[in-house]
Amino acid sequence: MKKILMIGTGGTIASKQTEYGLAPGLSPEDILTYIPAVAKICEVESIQVCNLDSTNVTPDHWKLLVKTIEENYNEYDGFVICHGTDTLAYTAAALSYMIQNSRKPIVVTGAQKPIEMDVTDAKTNLLDSFIYASDNDSQDVNIVFDGKVIVGTRARKERAKSYNAFTSINFPYLAVIQDGVLVRYITEMPYTGPVRFYYEMKNSVYVLKLIPGMKADILPYLFENYDCLVIESFGVGGIPESLLEEFYEEMNKWKDKGKIVVMTTQVANEGSNMTVYEVGKRVKLDFKLLEAYDMTLEATITKMMWLMALGDQRYEEMKRDFYRLINHDILFTKREWEEK
Fold this sequence. Notes:
By secondary structure, this protein is an alpha/beta fold. It has helices spanning about 30, 60-70, 90-100, 120-135, 220-225, 240-255, 280-285, 295-310, 315-320, 335-340, and strands at about 5-10, 15-20, 20-25, 45-50, 80, 100, 105-110, 140-145, 150, 155, 165-170, 175-180, 180-185, 195, 205-210, 230-235, 260-265, 290.
């Protein structure tokens, strides 16, 4: 039997009803009592690293998870993290960059309803997670939820209440789990190099979501106070005329001072391509900026946090590392990017 460490962080799966609504209140040991069938799947030990609503998760909590996994890495065959659903996709993406080349599976899961409720998705999600974590071919950081295995960099929470809360964006599910049986769609090549742990995440990132008629006076403040500006544009990507003059002024002002702009899209699927329309191509030709293409917003944000924390990098180095494939985070390869 595989030996799996379950890591509790709180979230809905561990919540109890209080006077002011649901709040985390169950320990990992309490949670495990609701799934006695796990004893037939693997040997489980547990640890609690925090106990909070995932709305309150910060990069410091990601560091705590990395520290816990690194300290226990040699003692266990895999890890299952119980997490709240609201920021679960961010945590899975962050851990994909903070723990790389892990031959051992790191599964992130949660639930839309507390495990102590009579009708809940928590028991199935948790059992499925242990099934996946105990399989010999499982590795790296993935989400197991509603019977689906989603790559850690590809998840998006698209439903607030339904059990099928998460979707895989621009990438197929790695596997599904049906009636306790793992059906693997994609068999991954095992990592051969050593696992690598990273602790630093620079959170000087701001996401600017464009809306029609947006005023440009926000741009000087954002460029002044943040090192990375992720712009969620419309469609395949571009800067509207109402922002163009101020955008050019700020880009020229800050271009040699280490500020990074990443262009992405508000459209969930199929990604950006700024070379299609004049509103995007002109900006891309005039400035050194990054484009997220098919990456999720969660992966884009956490990858930039990780890259900026590595130390001072020139734009060309940042560009090279941003387009380096990590846990299936980008299909638009470096060669394709250079040819466009």
